[in-house]
Amino acid sequence: MTKTYSIKIEYSPVYECIASFYAYINRKEGKNLYLDNDWRDETARRLPPSFAAELADERWEVLHRIVLLAAQSPAKTSVEQFLDWLGAIPAGEIYERLAPWVSAIPLNLGEIRDRSLSLLSRWHEHYFAALEPQILDRLAASARRFARMAEQMEPPELVEEATNGIRIEPTDHLQQVVLAPQYHCAPTTILDFYRGIATCLYPVADAAAGPDPLRELLPLAQCLADEKRLQILRCLAEKPCTLGELQQQVSLAKSTVHHHISTLRRAGMIRAHFADSTTAIGYSLRERFLDRLPELIMTFLSSGGNGR
């Protein structure tokens, strides 16, 4: 029997700084985030024009390795502390910190570090340093809550609870999952696998404004209003399925089925199962949403004008 992995739950503003930067520059993913184009436009107006123009064509393909490096860093109590540490360590030490976990490491680590440091430093100065403190306070509170839950729950169940439906399966290779809260990319989870470790930045959607029953209820209602998504739920009620099996059942293009599955997963209605890779190995029904839905409806209806 495969031994389960360990969980490292940690809060750091560094993860949120990275997530906020990613949410801003990744316009393709932006349509799936709660923070919409209005947030991006408002943020762009706060940035120096030259920096905003620079970010309009920024790819920043090293995001996930920066997250892994942050997980390995001894200095991340504040963003400033992490940036000072990142700027001071030589490229050789970066290599040593990444080598146990990453199979292919670019030769120009110093150049990549300098570019990342420049972007994150200016992003922190012009945007993140002015972030509302209550957002970071609620992220820290979420990490403390899951740390308490970790004493009672197995790691796969804890990850599923935090991510609202991502299940990281134990394997012979996976040793540890780093679980950290983030707000800017909600309801998306930023998940990555390396050799023996996974980083999972889970969404805390209510970090800015507090609990809102409509925010959780609306995605569920939208999923139930789509015939193809209902068919997918019915298939998964019978048995877990792979993407290919679901495609055969609903007779749609694989990309369309994947879109529906992603929407259902973000709504917390299904599980996506992962094993040592960011490509899901299968999907299953989360029956708990059947109990959660009437509870959310009653909460919303009884909230009067406070629902939103």
Automatic annotation (TrEMBL):
Stretches assigned to the HTH arsR-type domain: 209-308
Family annotation (CDD domains): HTH_ARSR (cd00090)
Coiled-coil residues: none
Family matches, as PROSITE patterns: HTH_ARSR_2
Signal peptide per UniProt: none
A molecular-function term among this protein's GO annotations: DNA binding
Record keywords, A-Z: DNA-binding, Transcription, Transcription regulation
Pfam families on file: HTH_5
Name of the protein in its database record: Winged helix-turn-helix domain-containing protein
UniProt organism field: Brevibacillus thermoruber
Source species taxonomy: Bacteria, Bacillati, Bacillota, Bacilli, Bacillales
